[in-house]
Design a protein that fits this description.
This protein is an alpha+beta fold. The chain folds into three domains: 3-88, Uridine Diphospho-n-acetylenolpyruvylglucosamine Reductase, domain 2 (2-Layer Sandwich), CATH 3.30.43; 91-218, Uridine Diphospho-n-acetylenolpyruvylglucosamine Reductase, domain 3; 223-303, Uridine Diphospho-n-acetylenolpyruvylglucosamine Reductase, domain 1. It has eight helices and 17 strands. Strands 6-7-12-10-11 form a five-stranded antiparallel sheet. The model has no long low-confidence stretch (mean pLDDT 93).
Length: 315
């Protein structure tokens, strides 16, 4: 079966779900870069997620799960196959009457959840401040800082696979620093959170503290659109320091620039393409390797149809 025929059959089998064709993805990424998705499907319930997974498996269709679009570079040619983005009840936030519990969809905005939790006096939410993206991604990376991580307040997380619905209690989530052990085959759908002890009597003071920390964080980061840190920090050093040391801070290729604020950020000055970013990143890798004998590894995930480009993680 050709990709085109598979997508036609997919649309027939999932006709009750919100489906759109040739959707530009650059407006759904923090980088503001990327071509179209062949099909964008937006399931609103866990059952609809499972139907999408089952159908893609049955038709051997490539499937990419799009979260908040941060830490992501989408190819200029877009993404072939099906792109899934959670919606409806899977993007909803529900607070208990006493404010001690929250049930939140994995497709909900993590900054919005952070704001809600701070307003309830959840002290651990101070550590979440400034983390972009959606709740699902925040759970997978156990988002937070030394002031608090999302995993600390998790009671259980629900997920869907093509075969079944799964629920993980906190002990099964494997939360660690910037990590968890959710299976790659599972799509997180909802999370049940509870604040048992670290709850402040003065939410306004918590919000003030969180805003001060966010202000400090933003002072060291560029204001232009980006995907966050392009490279992982090598052991015992910083990628930004190395890139600045080889004289590439401020270097531009097309509409992409190595930030003049922080050299481990490549920013979109307005009309950058994925090709511009790839070329600029390769220049940084080559220069750092040649002059510092350090190989920089990508931190930003590259997805889509990079067949005519170099260095993409095709899906």
């Amino acid at each position: 079966m050709t990709l085109s025929a598979g997508l036609t059959e997919f649309k027939a089998r999932c006709a009750e779900i919100d489906i759109n064709e040739n959707v530009e993805l650059k407006r759904m990424t923090t980088f503001g870069i990327g071509g179209p998705a062949d099909v964008l499907v937006k399931p609103k319930t866990a059952d609809e997620v499972r139907l999408v997974l089952q159908t893609c498996d049955a038709l051997s269709l490539p499937l990419f799960y799009l979260g908040g679009g941060s830490n992501l570079l989408v190819a200029d040619a877009g993404i072939r196959g099906v792109v899934m983005k959670l919606d409806g009840e899977l993007a909803h936030i529900e607070v208990s009457d006493d404010g001690n519990e929250i049930v939140v969809g994995a497709g909900a905005s993590f900054p919005k959840l952070t704001k809600v939790a701070l307003g309830l006096g959840w002290e651990s939410a101070v550590g979440w401040m400034g983390t972009p993206g959606l709740v699902g991604g925040a759970l997978i990376m156990n988002a937070g800082t030394r002031d608090g991580c999302i995993g600390e307040v998790v009671v259980e997380v629900s997920a869907a696979t093509a075969e079944k619905q799964i629920t993980f209690d906190r002990s099964e989530c494997g939360f660690a620093y910037r990590n968890s052990n959710f299976p790659r085959s599972a799509v997180l759908t909802t999370a049940h959170l509870r604040c048992d002890d670290r709850r402040s009597d003065s939410p306004s003071e918590l919000q003030k503290r969180a805003k001060e920390l966010l202000k400090k964080r933003h002072a060291s980061q560029p204001k232009l659109r980006s995907a966050g840190s392009i490279f992982k920090n090598p052991p015992g050093d910083y990628a930004g320091r190395l890139i600045e040391a080889v004289g590439l801070k401020g270097k531009t290729v097309g509409g992409a620039q190595i930030s003049q604020v922080h050299a481990n950020f490549i920013v979109n000055t307005g009309d950058a393409t994925a090709a511009d970013v790839l070329q600029l990143a390769a220049m940084a890798q080559d220069a750092v390797s040649a002059q510092c004998n350090v190989d920089l590894e990508w931190e930003v995930k590259r997805v889509g149809d990079f067949a005519s480009s170099d260095g993409g993680d095709d899906v």
